[in-house]
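stage 2 :: seqdesign
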């Protein structure tokens, strides 16, 4: 169990996970999406998926940065850099989709969902990160009380 928990407190697995996240998004954005005709029609479901995917990416990127630079690192590192990243990457992803047959790109609301999802992921990760460190730190006589 300690080995499993230690994986979550090391920066390297989070960096690998973020690279996988980027690659999966890049690949998924390169293909047309066609839902079966029998699929339920849920209004704005694509916005929810954009938000959710980028929310996960925000948590992953922020956690990697927190583990790499520490909780006492600057707000620029902890908040501003990842939030700007998601804003720019969302624009790039939307632009790329304009060249993908069967996809519509440059959708302002898709970008907004990307940006807000990434931003909320960064905020949530920064808020709960100290709990992860507390949970994963070994119990010693000094920290027991």
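stage 2 :: out
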């Amino acid at each position: 169990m300690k080995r499993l928990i230690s994986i979550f407190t090391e920066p390297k697995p989070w960096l690998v996970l973020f690279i996988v996240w980027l690659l999966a998004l890049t690949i998924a954005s390169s293909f047309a999406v066609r839902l079966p005709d029998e699929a339920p029609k849920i209004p704005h479901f694509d916005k929810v998926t954009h938000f959710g995917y980028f929310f996960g990416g925000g948590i992953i990127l922020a956690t990697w940065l927190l583990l790499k630079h520490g909780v006492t690192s600057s707000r620029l590192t902890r908040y501003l850099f990842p939030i700007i990243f998601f804003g720019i990457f969302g624009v790039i992803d939307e632009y790329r989709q304009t060249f993908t047959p069967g996809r519509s790109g440059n959708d302002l609301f898709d970008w907004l969902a990307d940006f807000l999802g990434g931003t909320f992921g960064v905020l949530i990760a920064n808020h709960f990160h100290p709990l992860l460190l507390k949970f994963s730190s070994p119990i010693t006589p000094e920290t027991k009380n």
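stage 3 :: structure notes
- Confidence is low (pLDDT under 50) at residues 138-145.
- Residues 2-30+50-136 form one domain.
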